[in-house]
């Protein structure tokens, strides 16, 4: 389980997030929605130990990320692309990640096949399309067979077949009793994939709950989203 309690972060005098609190339960896909600049990235960076909060806690299985014994075996994450050096091949990148985290080398071939990159494993990352780079980032996230997945815009650059593939992947991952936190701005895809939602606006959580409860009384998730994040109708 992911537990975020009272998370607050300022950048100078600007409040990035204020008193953010929500939980992400195992066995379900939780969607994390919000306008640009709402605080999604700040929350995820703190959760993954890439930034420090001014107040509050962000725990994965009861521990902050920095205190996890085997981080990659506990949490698989995708933030801002694959993180691979452009001159390395896909296989070399994943082999390095596996060795540095005590993961068997056999997992490299397995995840390359799982994300559909087996045929280009020997190609340099610099030649990859945006969608291929996303698939490589997902391969790295899956490498340690983690109990938790934290993904930021994972379908960015994927073609329709790739979008269907990752939708099935995340649903199956959650069905296995694992925890999935998915940040995306694509409403239609979130409506197809998420079981639960956390909606954030201007650095604060405005609602949480099952998809059906959040969208109740609205024709679509998009309508519910704008009603929650822009009640004055300035973006309509």
Question: Which structural category fits the helices and strands?
Answer: alpha/beta
Main-sheet strand order equals 5-6-7-3-8-9
What proportion strand? 25-35%
CATH topology of the domain at 2-81 and 148-229: Rossmann fold
Q: Which residues form runs of ≥5 with pLDDT under 50?
A: none
Biggest pleated sheet: 6 strands, mixed
Count of individual helical segments: 9
CATH superfamily of the domain at 2-81 and 148-229: P-loop containing nucleotide triphosphate hydrolases
Total strand count, please?
A: 9
Q: How are helices and strands ordered from N to C?
A: EEEHEHEHHHEHEHEEHH
The general outline is globular
- The CATH class designation of the domain at 2-81 and 148-229 is Alpha Beta
Round the mean pLDDT to the nearest integer and report it.
Answer: 92
Give the C-alpha Rg: 18 Å
Alpha-carbon distance between the termini?
36 Å
List its salient traits.
9 helices, globular, 9 strands, Rossmann fold
Characterization of this structure:
With 236 residues, this protein is α/β, with parallel strands linked by helices. The protein has a domain at 2-81 and 148-229: Rossmann fold (3-Layer(aba) Sandwich), CATH 3.40.50.300. It is built from nine helices and nine strands. Strands 5-6-7-3-8-9 form a six-stranded mixed sheet, with helices on both faces. A three-stranded antiparallel sheet has the order 2-1-4. The longest helix has 16 residues, at 160-175. It is globular. The termini are far apart. The model has no long low-confidence stretch (mean pLDDT 92).
């Amino acid at each position: 389980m992911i537990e975020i309690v009272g998370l607050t972060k300022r950048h100078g005098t600007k409040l990035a997030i204020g008193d953010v609190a929500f939980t992400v339960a195992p066995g379900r896909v939780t969607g994390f929605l919000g306008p640009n600049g709402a605080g999604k990235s700040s929350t995820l960076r703190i959760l993954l130990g890439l930034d420090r909060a001014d107040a509050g806690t962000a725990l994965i299985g009861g521990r902050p990320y920095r205190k996890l014994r085997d981080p990659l075996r506990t949490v698989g994450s995708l933030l801002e692309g694959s993180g691979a050096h452009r001159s390395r091949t896909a296989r070399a990148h994943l082999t390095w990640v596996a060795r540095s985290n005590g993961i068997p080398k056999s997992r490299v071939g397995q995840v390359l096949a799982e994300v559909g990159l087996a045929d280009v494993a020997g190609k340099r990352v610099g030649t990859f399309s945006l969608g291929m780079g996303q698939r490589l980032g997902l391969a790295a996230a899956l490498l340690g067979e983690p109990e938790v997945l934290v993904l930021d815009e994972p379908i960015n650059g994927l073609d329709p077949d790739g979008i269907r593939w990752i939708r099935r992947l995340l649903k199956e991952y959650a069905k296995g009793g694992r925890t999935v936190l998915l940040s995306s701005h694509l409403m239609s895809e979130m409506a197809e994939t998420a079981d639960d939602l956390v909606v954030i606006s201007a650095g604060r959580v405005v609602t949480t709950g099952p998809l059906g409860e959040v969208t109740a009384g609205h024709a679509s998730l998009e309508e519910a989203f704008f009603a929650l994040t822009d009640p004055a109708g300035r973006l309509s």
